[in-house]
Amino acid sequence: MATTQQASTKQDILQILLKRGQATAQELAEGLEISPQAIRRHLKDLEAEELILHQSVVSGMGRPQHIYKLSKKGRDRLPNNYDQFAVSFLNTLVDTLGYEQAGSLLRKHWERKAQEYRDRLGDVSLRDRVIKLVELRREEGYMTEYFLLDENNVQSNHSSQFMLTEHNCAISHVASSFPSVCGHELEMFAATLEDCQIERTHWIVNGEHRCGYLIKAQDD
Fold first, then answer.
1. If you ran DSSP here, which 8-state letter would residue 78 be given?
2. Residue 194 — φ and ψ, nearest 5°?
3. Which helix (H) or strand (E) holds 118?
4. Cβ(170)–Cβ(81) under 8 Å?
5. Residue 98 phi, psi (nearest 5)
6. Per its UniProt record, what SUPFAM superfamilies does this chain match (predicted)?
7. pLDDT by residue, tens only, the chain of 220 residues
8. Strand 211-217 and strand 65-70: pairing?
9. Are 134 and 128 in contact (CB under 8 A)?
10. DSSP annotation of 210
11. What is the DSSP track for 146-193?
């Protein structure tokens, strides 16, 4: 029972680091509501397994503080919906049809996906569509969140600026080999929310810990 609980806590630590990008032992302890001593034991084990790494940061006159992040091995340990089959399939597609035509097929796939999203989002406010889009992406294996940027409209359904954030990439292996799929994903969001401007602000493929998209109503 204790071993199962420890494994669960370690998984929770990995999930928090995936979502936040980095955290101190104290922040992790507070987030999981367990003692800093217990957190440090788990962190030591996770570092020994090469699932996390740390850097020391000096602040003021105090002792250096350890900031913990996921390693690539730790990121790969977390649940995802991608595998090597997709990469192998795309390689075969490129070898058979050529890169340009394979890219055209990928674009058609994202266009169909955008149409599917539009049909499921319906004709509602932008805020409601963003909320529904987040739900759909979560169903597909993405750790997706949204943040309201125009704070004056927190209680309003007429909010016009959002940040959509995805803390993992369900097509990470594909994106590493075929970065163009990320461009198609941006096009897909733009086609899904046709009355908005969509701008990528963060990109996992570039080494950042999340993908981020700024969503703005066209009349802003």
1. S
2. -65, -25
3. helix 99-121
4. yes
5. 95, 155
6. Winged helix' DNA-binding domain
7. 455 666 688 888 988 888 888 889 999 999 899 998 999 999 999 999 988 888 888 766 667 888 998 887 787 776 554 456 666 777 788 888 887 888 788 888 889 999 999 999 999 999 999 999 999 988 887 888 998 886 555 444 566 899 998 887 666 666 666 767 777 888 999 999 999 999 988 876 566 677 889 999 986 5
8. unpaired
9. no
10. S
11. EEE--GGGTT-TT--EEEEEESS-TTHHHHHH-THHHHHHHHHHHHHS
Q: What angle do CA 31, 44, 34 make, to 5 degrees?
A: 25
**Residues in CB range of 201: below 8 A, 6 or more apart:** 163, 212, 213, 214
- Please state the φ and ψ torsions of residue 101, each to the nearest 5 degrees: -70, -35
- How many Cβ atoms are within 10 Å of 36's Cβ, its own excluded? 15
- Tell me the backbone φ, ψ of residue 144, rounded to 5 degrees: -105, 140
3-state helix, strand, coil split of the chain in percent (to 5) is 55, 15, 25
Q: How far apart are CA 141 and CA 163, in angstroms?
A: 19
Kindly give, in sequence order, each residue whose CB lies less than 8 Å from that of residue 3, ignoring residues fewer than 6 positions away.
Answer: none
Helix (H, G, I), strand (E, B) or coil at 12: helix
> Would you say 11 and 18 are in contact if contact means Cβ atoms under 8 Å apart?
no
User: Which tokens hold the place of 195?
Assistant: 């009355």
Q: What are the structural domains of the chain?
A: 2-77 (1.10.10.10), 84-217 (3.30.1380)
| Cross-strand partners of 146 | 164
